[in-house]
Amino acid sequence: MVPPPDNDVLWARAVHYSHSGSPALSGVSLGVRDGEILALVGPRGSGKTTLLQCLSGHLTPAQGEVWFNSVPIHTMNPLARERLRIDRFGWIDPEPHLVPELNAWENTALPLLLTGASHRSAKKAAMEWLERLDIGAYARKRPHELLQSQRQRVAITRALITSPTVLFADEPTAALHRTDRAQILRTLTAAARSHRITVVLATHDPEVAALADRTVTLLDGRRVNSVRLPDTEGSPECSLSV
Ligand SMILES: Nc1ncnc2c1ncn2[C@@H]1O[C@H](COP(=O)(O)OP(=O)(O)OP(=O)(O)O)[C@@H](O)[C@H]1O
């Protein structure tokens, strides 16, 4: 195995994955640079979620390699991968999955409380993140008392509170109204940049992808490269599937 380039925090080489025999990824390679916001774009079913799951160690590729900071994830045992996810990664789903019995700040603080932080310091950190996402006033509300956009903000604060090295966000604003979407994404990307959190974001929305530093396009489980051909100066880019 040849380790990845030093400036890539995540690196995948020729990743293949099938769901119950049906191919979802067919030889995808990519590098994610430290501190960048990378958007994985592509139509529904193109393999974005599966790639996020392979990069974050939720799924083990059938073939290929996934590395995090020069450590191979694809050869780790399930326990080691779970430890890595808890210690270094954050995850945001399209729909917020909050603990219904806990209020907003308790949901936000949960990852810190589970790793042994004091109640006082976890609450302080949770309140700061909730304020930052403009929902400090709802800190004592339970999930059922919140709007969907407020619940998703809580889910985002819960993913950010541990200052993960890499934050994986799977269509994080897909279930939200357009106006909420833009504001939440701007706050999320600003928070990630100020804390030097690398973000890998799956989306099929060009407006969301526009907030990223770089985009990687998937189509039918393969990476699609945009190239400008030398003899087509001034004309639009074309795409090649490789
Ligand atoms: N759990 C599963 N079982 C069977 N097939 C699956 C499963 N998850 C995904 N697939 C299939 O794998 C392919 C890639 O799906 P994936 O969810 O990774 O794509 P996506 O680009 O994230 O799409 P979406 O935007 O709809 O989530 C699709 O054909 C999908 O139907």
Polypeptide structure, described:
The protein has helices at 48-55, 78-88, 104-114, 119-132, 148-160, 178-194, 206-209; strands spanning 8-19, 22-33, 37-41, 63-68, 71-72, 89-92, 166-170, 198-203, 214-219, 222-227, 238-241. It is built from 7 helices and 11 strands. The protein is of the alpha/beta class and 242 residues long. Strands 6-7-8-3-9-10-11 form a 7-stranded mixed β-sheet, sandwiched between helices. The chain has one domain: Rossmann fold (3-Layer(aba) Sandwich), CATH 3.40.50. The structure holds adenosine-5'-triphosphate. Adenosine-5'-triphosphate binds next to strand 2 and helix 1.
Explain the layout of strands and helices.
Blueprint: E1 8-19, E2 22-33, E3 37-41, H1 48-55, E4 63-68, E5 71-72, H2 78-88, E6 89-92, H3 104-114, H4 119-132, H5 148-160, E7 166-170, H6 178-194, E8 198-203, H7 206-209, E9 214-219, E10 222-227, E11 238-241
Parallel strand pairs: 3-8, 3-9, 6-7, 7-8
Antiparallel strand pairs: 1-2, 1-4, 4-5, 9-10, 10-11
Helix pairs in contact: 3-4, 3-5, 5-6
Adenosine-5'-triphosphate (ATP) is lined by residues 19-20, 22, 24, 42, 44-50, 202, 204.
Keywords: ATP-binding, Nucleotide-binding
GO molecular function: ATP binding; ATP hydrolysis activity; transmembrane transporter activity
GO cellular component, one term: plasma membrane
